[in-house]
Amino acid sequence: METDPRKVKRMAAKREDEMEAFCLSLKDCGVSSRNLDAMLRKSLRQVIPQLDCTKCASCCKEAYVVVDTDDIARMAQALGMKRSEFRAEYIGKNEEGDTVFNRRPCPFLRRNLCTQYDSRPECCRQYPQSLAVDCTEKLENLSANYLVCPAVFHALEQLRESLPAVTTRREQKSNRKKTGKP
Ligand code: SF4
Ligand code: SF4
Asked: What is the model's pTM?
């Protein structure tokens, strides 16, 4: 298994379109969302221990960090700031209107390490396993994270291998578009 984050990113970039088609096809692949979640969780459990997140930190650099009021309260306290000060300094909205850190890479990332690890937001604690919860409700998100996270890359590749029948019309259609063949 390739563990170098930069190499995994290059591999993901080359397969981006086909993986996007695969992810969208999961909606009607005949496997229940619950089972797909279980398969993804199992793959992530296998893959994550083989990766060194401190050599990657891609999620902290590229992904929106969604925060809630509990996260803000906890982090403000840890930093000795008022919540209003913390909000003014670090909080904004993304295109979807989610409350997020107002910049990427994350302002708390230093040399690939989290300087606020103990008080970090809940979404940081759950990532990337959070993608294996009701995955069919967020297939575009899953596909986008294929490009961000090497663990998601490998978990999705494993899923694709174990679901060969899921080369559905969407994927075939995408291939036809590329080749121009009917
Ligand atoms: S709070 Fe920490 S774990 Fe979360 S994105 Fe920022 S640096 Fe990464
Ligand atoms: S969770 Fe994924 S994207 Fe984040 S540091 Fe670990 S391997 Fe990289």
From this structure: 0.86
